[in-house]
Amino acid sequence: MSGATHGVFVTGTDTGVGKTVVACELVRALRAEGRDVGVMKPIETGVGPEGPLDAIALREAAGAPESLDETCPQRFALPAAPNVAARAEGRAVDLDLLREGFARIAARHEFAVVEGAGGLLVPIARDVAMIDLALQLRLPLLVVARARLGTINHTLLTLEVAGTRGARVAGVVISHADGALSEADAANLDALRDSLGDRLVGEIPPLAGGPALDASNLPGEIDLPALHARARLSDTAT
Predict the structure, then answer these.
(1) Phi, psi at residue 9, to the nearest 5°?
(2) N or C: which end of the chain has fewer CB within 10 A?
(3) Helices (H), 33-129
(4) Catalytic: 19?
(5) Collapsing DSSP states into helix, strand and coil, what is residue 4?
(6) Minimal CA–CA distance to 115: which of 166, 58, 167, 37?
(7) Strands of 95-222, DSSP E
(8) Residues 6+ apart with CB under 8 A from 223
(9) pLDDT-derived band at 202, boundaries 50, 70, 90
(10) What tens digit of pLDDT does each residue of 58-92 get?
């Protein structure tokens, strides 16, 4: 659907929480509904010779509608915050490149799934954090929370920052990226579920063999009707 800008910006309460797994599952679920989905990983750090693995996984989940350069226009080798990784190479994150790239993808597809790097306050340029990019792209947030001790604080801090900065939250997905939970972690997670209420729109179970980028056999654990309702997908303005 040309000219549409419906979508979500997938962010996390921390790094390594399972954003890519959740984003890929969301893309596959949307495609199963018959939606035309474009994907973008605007910035990826820690990129080695094998390429930007998160972006590659997203692109494959979406059926590779765009080239890898379009899917991931900014890549850096150092596994650090984007502005730090860029500075290590004598470069800077090109925000215009990111905004223009997203506009092209959004114009080609009915729905866009954009995956950020790290959490909302990760710096990507001077006085610019990841949440600023989400706001500039006018996308509601899908927050991925890690299922372990500390997640209540991390998740509620993320939601508070989003609210303070005027970002709309489409929902929260709990990711069991660290595998089985201890008794304390399980009790803590029950409290978080209770606190989130209808903001909780999905939970991704532990993957067999541990966390992995390939979520092709993952059961559908994202409540798409709830996500559609909370995100108001026909109106993504913040």
Answers:
(1) -110, 115
(2) N
(3) 53-61, 68-71, 82-88, 95-108
(4) no
(5) coil
(6) 58
(7) 111-115, 123-125, 128-129, 141-146, 169-175, 200-204
(8) 201, 202
(9) confident
(10) 999 999 889 999 999 999 999 999 999 999 999 99
Residue 234 pLDDT > 70? no
Domains in the chain, CATH or no CATH each: 6-231 (3.40.50.300)
The residue annotated as part of the active site, out of 6, 19, 28, 41, is 41
Confidence band for 196, pLDDT divided at 50, 70 and 90: very high
- Integer Cα distance of 30 and 26 in angstroms: 6
Pick from 140, 212, 141: nearest CA to 176: 212
- Contact between residue 155 and residue 142 where contact means Cβ atoms under 8 Å apart: no
Query: What integer pLDDT is reported at residue 57 of this predicted model?
Result: 96
The first and second tokens of residue 181, run together, are 């939970």
Give the residue among 128, 115, 123 at the shortest CA–CA distance from 55. Answer: 115
Q: State which H helix or E strand residue 12 sits in.
A: strand 6-12
